[in-house]
Protein 1
Amino acid sequence: MARRRAISLPALDDAQTRFIAAWGQMGSTWGISRTMAEIHALLFISGSPLNTDQIMQRLSISRGNASMSLRALQEWGIVSRVHKRGDRKEYFEAEQDAWSMLRKVIRERLRREVHPVLASLFDIRDSTQLPASEARAPSSSPLAAAVAEHNRRLDSLLELVQTIDRLGERFVGSDGKGLRAAAMLLSKVS
Amino acid sequence: MARRRAISLPALDDAQTRFIAAWGQMGSTWGISRTMAEIHALLFISGSPLNTDQIMQRLSISRGNASMSLRALQEWGIVSRVHKRGDRKEYFEAEQDAWSMLRKVIRERLRREVHPVLASLFDIRDSTQLPASEARAPSSSPLAAAVAEHNRRLDSLLELVQTIDRLGERFVGSDGKGLRAAAMLLSKVS
DNA sequence: CCCAGCTTTCAAAATGTTCTGAAACCTCTA
DNA sequence: TAGAGGTTTCAGAACATTTTGAAAGCTGGG
């Protein structure tokens, strides 16, 4: 029977590297730059704060890139600066609670991407709102009918996006503990 | 008092154009190419099937681009081909039910993006699983402790991604009608 | 006030993605 | 089976994003 090999330092390092690659991959398919996701992965998986030089070395990236990506991660709220006594360097650490992390990401995506789209959709809908008089009477004009159909389609999409938005807001607003429970609960709704 | 201007054909056209732009914008922030999102928007908002030439004209894109984007949209399952009697051209139409559309998008994203990440994470976790003997006894070795921490972090992420996956699968699996109800219901869970 | 050590900025280079246009390819009909 | 009408493919061009590296900008101690 083959003996099970004991875990070694290189094996841990390798696992970290593979995790970083997988997370970076994922990030890039969800509209986050690969490097940003990799830095986040590195900070998350190592668990302790790292400074810019350590990050640069570990990921083979330039100082400028590291600096900009770290700033962006801080703007997302999932990485924060840490000062170490007696060290002039800045250290960075990742949010360690995965659910809290997700909450922050969703909060930002709502703010940056969903809300602007909602605003546009409302705006567009208003631009073809039929005057009340025309909307009330079943119109005989083909144009009015086309406009009505158009509005119906727009409204159905609006409703969808609004529901997603409300869902997200609720998720984001719930406190850390209740959050996971809510997700679990949903996963049982049939 | 200013008189309310009646809806005109140009106004409808303009609303369509604005919708197409907004939807294209959104697509690009969610990892879908702008053109693909725009074609989808055009088909969705016009409601009736269009052929390649009509799409090319309306969006000012090349035939090649239109063809490839239409193929991709069909692979996502949210656009389908339609034959028109007595017309040799192919026509395309978008799924008109917004919730069904969302369901299809989520199904594909789970398949293409979430499942591969899950597989990688499981794989990575397995590579540093402590032999049962070592894991059982509280270890004194600092290396073993580091590995244990690493595994803990990995597991917490795994659990998160798995929950999302299950949630998505359930959403995707539910039938059209129950779907929206479930989302509404979730939005009331506190 | 000046310097050392560190961080941030940003223009240009590298890289990656999307789009075009023309040629190859189907598939009906005569 | 020729060819008209239509669709797909794909190499290269256009465009967009990401990354680099060097210079400018901070900051705290001497």
Protein 2
Amino acid sequence: MTSVTRTAGAYHHRDLRRALVDTATDLVRTHGPDGFSLRAAARAAGVDPAAVYRHFTDRSALLAAVAAVGFERLADDMVAGMAAAGDAPADRFEALGRAYVAFALTDPQHFRVMFGPYGSGPSRGADGAGGPSAYGLLVDALGDMGTAGVMSGPVEAAAMTAWAAIHGISTLLIDGAVTMTDTEADAAIDHVIGSVIRGLGA
Amino acid sequence: MTSVTRTAGAYHHRDLRRALVDTATDLVRTHGPDGFSLRAAARAAGVDPAAVYRHFTDRSALLAAVAAVGFERLADDMVAGMAAAGDAPADRFEALGRAYVAFALTDPQHFRVMFGPYGSGPSRGADGAGGPSAYGLLVDALGDMGTAGVMSGPVEAAAMTAWAAIHGISTLLIDGAVTMTDTEADAAIDHVIGSVIRGLGA
DNA sequence: ACCTGAACACCGTTCAAGT
DNA sequence: ACCTGAACACCGTTCAAGT
């Protein structure tokens, strides 16, 4: 009898909420926010569409959960990039910026949901996983640069400006606002990141 | 008899294509790209949904036309801002940047369509009205700065970097990625534009 | 407590038919 | 040449009903 090993509350799904977020994330990454549907996510999870409303208030709440997953992954990528970059604050900041752009170019659809009308921004990433938020990492990296004397001025203002530049080049590239070859795009990324670091200079 | 004054081919609409673009633009500006529907645009224009396909291949083609209207308006705003700013190249560039951010904050839904998966970018603005494109204006303004000796380096690279910063702060502000008061937002815009101009400095 | 089934008011798109 | 009308396969959301 399998009923013996069955854990309580695991009749249809051990964790439908988690299953829905996982399948929704996959659907968004492959088909984009517009191609994504609540019904398709329910279908992929093997449940009736109405079952989704037991765990999310509506379609946009499910997309917000997908966005939160994205911010956790982005923060992870930034931490990994900084770890590989070494100890020099400017190097660590550059690695953080490159991880940000790389995430956007690797996973444009996910990135779009994170900054679309759904996800409530990068501070959201702190919830759930308990890790640092993407924005917190940026502020910390700039704070380290200030301490090391390779940056001047208030950290918050510098953070907004640096973030705007890095976010801007990311969105321009993934939205195809400008037609570029891969090598041209790399040069543009280099130029933006170099310009940001020079702009922060003490 | 009214039939005497009727012009040829004006039975149902003098220009259904234009009427559809106008109503679609209004719908996008009030309800956003997601709230917009081809059927609602047809309803507002007083025609059957199927009639839209006589003028546009599909829903996204209609949205692309809305985006093109947006790029024409953006270029107009930039020209007006520069005209009011005077003759100094750096002042004119600053006015251009401020017009860009102001457009995004005033008409966020339209701005979103322009840079979403639909509109094919700002170079599109050159078509139709015959006016200059938003990107062309940016490149020209930077070229003038180079001629005046207040900017160094290649224009194309500088244009991408400046555009990224200005576009970035625009999208971060309208997507609510960071929560700010109006005065904080103004300060952030000032900081970004100042940083861009300083970064261009010869 | 959690999920199903059927229903409602919408979509985008197609195609034959009207004028 | 341009538009209508009806149809198709989808949506998001709600609500009574099942277990």
